[in-house]
Amino acid sequence: MYGWIWRHLPGPTPVRVVEALVLALGIIALLMFVVFPWAEPLLPFNNVTTPS
Amino acid sequence: MEAATEVLPRVVHKHEDVLPKTEPETVKIPRPAPPDGVARKAVRGFGELMITAGLVILLFVVYEVYVTDLISAGKQDEATTALDDQWNESNTVAPVDPQRQVQYDLIEGKAFAKMYIPVFGPDYHFSIVEGTTDKHLEVGPGHYVGTALPGNPGNFAVAGHRVGKGAPFNDLDLLSSCDAIVVETQTTWVVYRMLPTSGEEAGWAEGKAKNPKCAKVAPLKDSSNPASGPYSKTVGQEIVTPQQGEVISPVPHFAGELPVAEQAALMTLTTCHPRFSDKQRLIVHAVLTMSYPKANGFVPPELKEQ
Question: Which residue ranges traverse the bilayer (chain A) (predicted)?
Answer without folding.
Answer: 20-39
